[in-house]
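Postdoc handover notes: sequence design on the structure in folder B. Input tokens:
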């Protein structure tokens, strides 16, 4: 396997581990009824659960983007901006729609700028972020399948 494919395989391994962490945090968020609850009313334990979820979501989304870029580079896509990566991923059927990616990225960016500042903005953002998790997991599943089928990267 060439060095770039080794890099992609490593990113996939890392994302699989990160997926477990995000799934755990997402489950805690739902189990404790934090989704939709006003941020100002959260108890300390609930705030910690939300903080862990927020961080894991952000890291997962960021690393998933790096994987998509690496796949596009391996496929020799000319990349001048991330929109080129999204166009490739949509054409390769890794993304059902570039809007799926943009929604997760936008909610991540918004919540990171608004965190603990505007409760009216934060509460629906947390709901939206929680709703994006299954889509991000689907994107990872499709990316992993693409890597196996088209690039010959073995599942480990």
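Designed sequence:
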């Amino acid at each position: 396997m060439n060095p770039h494919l080794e890099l992609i395989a490593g990113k996939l391994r890392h994302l699989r581990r990160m997926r477990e962490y995000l799934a755990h945090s997402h489950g805690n968020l739902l189990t404790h009824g934090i989704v939709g609850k006003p941020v100002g009313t959260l108890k300390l334990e609930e705030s910690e659960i939300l903080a862990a979820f927020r961080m894991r979501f952000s890291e997962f989304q960021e690393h998933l983007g790096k994987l998509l870029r690496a796949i596009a580079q391996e496929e020799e896509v000319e990349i001048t901006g991330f929109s080129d990566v999204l166009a490739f991923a949509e054409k390769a059927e890794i993304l059902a729609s570039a809007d799926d990616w943009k929604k997760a990225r936008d909610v991540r960016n918004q919540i990171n700028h608004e965190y603990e500042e505007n409760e009216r903005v934060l509460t629906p953002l947390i709901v939206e972020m929680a709703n994006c998790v299954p889509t991000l997991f689907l994107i990872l599943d499709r990316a992993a399948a693409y890597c196996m089928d088209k690039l010959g990267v073995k599942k480990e």
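Context for whoever picks this up: The CA atoms of residues 67 and 94 lie 11 Å apart. Don't rerun without checking with the PI first.
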